[in-house]
Design brief:
InterPro entries: AAA+_ATPase (IPR003593), ABC_transporter-like_ATP-bd (IPR003439), ABC_transporter-like_CS (IPR017871), P-loop_NTPase (IPR027417). Pfam families: ABC_tran. GO terms for molecular function: ATP binding; ATP hydrolysis activity. Keywords: ATP-binding, Nucleotide-binding. It is a single chain. The protein is α/β, with parallel strands linked by helices. The chain has two domains: about 150 residues, P-loop containing nucleotide triphosphate hydrolases (Rossmann fold); about 70 residues, no CATH class. Helix content is about 40%, strand content about 25%. It contains nine helices and ten strands. The protein has a six-stranded mixed sheet, sandwiched between helices. Strands 2-1-4-5 form a four-stranded antiparallel sheet. Helix 3 packs across helix 4, helix 3 runs parallel beside helix 5 and helix 4 runs antiparallel to helix 5. It binds adenosine-5'-triphosphate. The site of adenosine-5'-triphosphate has 11 residues, from strand 2 and helix 1.
């Protein structure tokens, strides 16, 4: 069974059609990257798969459950990190992770494991006991990544996971994401960082103006466009969609 199956997905905001028939599938254990220019429809797609936004038409299934008719079943499998997520500023990082773990853990042992895993992923050292209001942007992002992955979702949906992180912190987060799939998880992420998707993703979908323009592994896409990197592939796909 596919982890995610998106067929002919359409979504409009008023008279503006943001998604015009998006289609892709994700297999278990994959890191699947959605890349595209500003306004291409990445966040809209991720929010629909996360059950936060209703599609106008088309079908989206997560582990075989339809996001529109069975959203509660879908939510059992997923964890969603929004692009602009925040954490409760008056809590410490540790209190925040504990607060979230209480919702997900079925017993005390699982609660303890989740919080420990969250602390490990966040890598905030002794600052984990400082208030979130004192954190830098990058520290908050790491706390939120930890929050998304510590609950052991079968599918992690991460909107711009490394946005606002410096090079070293971004590398750390990429490693955490890779490790997470080694333990059986599947990841759907969006990114503007071409080096990141090339390094991280097993397959990439290029989305442009609400439609998937290309899907493939980084190696396949580079071969198809005779390109040295994914940035070149991206530029060529966008250029072609405007002029070819
Ligand atoms: N709530 C909304 N109301 C009206 N238009 C919206 C709304 N949300 C998104 N849009 C429009 O839909 C299109 C797709 O937006 P979306 O946020 O999905 O793009 P994106 O690829 O994630 O962009 P970015 O890379 O800039 O984050 C854009 O033109 C955006 O302006």
């Amino acid at each position: 069974m596919k982890v995610v199956e998106v067929i002919d997905l359409k979504k409009s905001y008023g008279t503006f059609q943001a998604l015009k028939g998006v289609k892709f599938e994700i297999d278990g254990g994959e890191i699947f990257g959605l890349i595209g220019p500003n306004g291409a429809g990445k966040t809209t797609t991720l929010r629909i798969i996360s059950t936060l936004l209703k599609p106008d038409s088309g079908s989206v299934k997560v582990f075989g459950y339809d996001v529109t008719s069975s959203p509660d079943d879908v939510r059992k499998f997923i964890s969603y990190l929004p692009e602009d997520a925040g954490a409760y500023k008056e809590l410490t990082g540790l209190e925040y992770l504990r607060f979230i773990a209480r919702f997900f853990a079925r017993d005390e042992a699982e609660f303890k494991d989740m919080v420990e895993k969250g602390v490990q992923i966040a890598k905030l050292k002794d600052r984990i006991t400082s208030k979130v209001s004192t954190y830098s942007k990058g520290m908050i992002r790491r706390l939120l990544i930890a929050r998304a992955l510590m609950v052991n979702p079968k599918l992690a949906i991460l909107d711009e996971p490394t946005s606002g992180l410096d090079v070293l912190n971004a590398q750390e987060v990429r490693k955490v994401i890779k490790d997470y799939t080694k333990n059986g998880g599947t990841v759907l992420l969006s990114s503007h960082n071409m080096l990141e998707v090339e390094f991280l993703c097993d397959r990439i979908a290029l989305i442009n103006e609400g439609q998937i323009a290309r899907i493939g592994s980084p190696v396949q896409l580079k071969q198809e466009f005779n390109a040295v990197n994914i940035e070149e592939v991206f530029t060529e796909v966008i250029r072609c969609s405007q002029t070819c």
